[in-house]
UniProtKB/TrEMBL annotation:
The lineage of its organism: Bacteria, Pseudomonadati, Pseudomonadota, Gammaproteobacteria, Pseudomonadales. The chain crosses the membrane at residues 64-83, 89-114. It comes from Marinobacter daqiaonensis. It comes from the Bacteria. This is Uncharacterized protein. Keywords: Membrane, Transmembrane, Transmembrane helix. Residues 157-180 are annotated as: Disordered.
Length: 180
């Protein structure tokens, strides 16, 4: 899946885009809007981006789980091989699982308070009152979606495209305006 990022000035344009996407068979779960005007989105019955799309919670959780797993392997192997602890298998598995869950839990605190790395480049525009429309499309339909948006909604500026795969170790994006 690809995610296309469009910036739009008016909420009425976002509403028209939503209607067109719905007519094209793009379900509301495949496009999301980030806007400073949440009340306007609600009034127009538009699909606002979820907490998972607005924050870096999932990326930080994934990092925490991976780091917790690495720490778990080090601790379990040190206690078992290095210090010769003689615990039942269930205790070793529990210790490892605890380190994985603890890593995710601790990382989640950072993730819930951080903006999603994919939308960070657009924060100035969002704060200025523009609306970020994110559309998820299968790779084979990407060109068709770009053509549809360019033909029916020239006011929507295609800003970037990205994979919908979440890379836990990716840094902040520096999107360059893409050609239509």
């Amino acid at each position: 899946m690809r995610r296309l990022f469009y910036l739009v000035d008016s909420i009425d344009s976002v509403d028209a885009i939503s209607d067109d996407l719905d007519r094209e068979g793009v379900g509301s779960w495949r496009f999301h809007i980030v806007s400073k005007n949440e009340a306007g989105l609600h009034r127009h019955r538009l699909h606002s981006a979820s907490v998972l799309q607005r924050t870096d919670l999932m990326r930080f959780l994934e990092r925490g789980w991976l780091i917790g797993a690495a720490i778990g392997v080090i601790v379990v192997s040190t206690l078992y091989a290095g210090l010769g602890f003689d615990w039942p298998l269930f205790a070793w598995i529990s210790l490892f699982a605890f380190s994985v869950v603890s890593g995710g839990w601790l990382a989640g605190f950072g993730g819930i308070s951080a903006r999603n790395y994919r939308i960070r480049p657009f924060l100035k525009d969002i704060e200025a009152g523009r609306h970020l429309v994110m559309v998820d499309v299968p790779k084979e339909h990407e060109d068709r979606m770009k053509q549809l948006m360019a033909r029916h909604h020239p006011e929507a500026e295609l800003q970037a495209r990205d994979d919908s795969f979440n890379n836990p170790f990716a840094g902040p994006r520096k999107h360059k305006r893409t050609d239509r």
